[in-house]
Amino acid sequence: MTVHVICDFDGTISQRDMITAIMERFVPKESRPIIDAVKAGRQTVKEGVEAMFELIPSNHYDEVARYAQEHTQVRRGFPQFIHTCVQLGWKLSVVSGGFDFFVMPVIHKFSTDAVDIYCNHLDTSGPRLRVQWSHPCDQACEGGCGLCKPSVIRQRVHSGDGVIVIGDGVTDFKAAKMADFVFARAQLLKLVEERRIPHLPFATFDDIIAAIDDKEGPLHAHIQ
Ligand SMILES: [Zn+2]
Prior knowledge:
Elements: E1 3-7, H1 18-26, H2 28-39, H3 45-53, H4 61-70, H5 78-88, E2 91-99, H6 100-110, E3 115-123, E4 130-132, H7 149-156, E5 162-167, H8 173-176, E6 181-184, H9 186-195, E7 199-201, H10 205-213, H11 218-222
Parallel strand pairs: 1-2, 1-5, 2-3, 5-6, 6-7
Antiparallel strand pairs: 3-4
The structure holds zinc ion.
The site of zinc ion has 7 residues, from helix 7.
């Protein structure tokens, strides 16, 4: 049996949602109605993210990438958390609806081979930025995810394996429903509470490491 840890990036590893940060910096007025429509469920995440990046001309890509890299703040304890997963033999995947230009530099700073990374790419060949989704929804998903976290889990996990999901937002909820145990903050915390999915809240990765170290605690009641 393998334990898989599926960890979100934006608002989880990074303190802020970097897509929102990019939009607020480069196209604040134009992106606002799209962000609101996605939050209200009138547009899928996939449609919303595509529409927002289309607001930005491709020749601004370098500036966008630099801005995102300079403004990513990593949540406390993440490097030690990678180390803890390696020691336990747990497979850690960062599964992000975000983009390679801000996810890769952060993860590679701490580890190059202990973490599998799933994230998206921007195509700069046209006049405006175009999203390339690296892992679209499979047949079993209702669609609209953009990067489909449930599909990634279905690809990686075999029956009998343990699944831990770490996240903060609505885009983590479909994945959380497939998990044996969830570490949640913000909106995701409310959703897993309502759904009674086994979970603990977290503020930093130190909290998650403490829960892993607590052999009598709730995590180990669900993950062997
Ligand atoms: Zn999907």
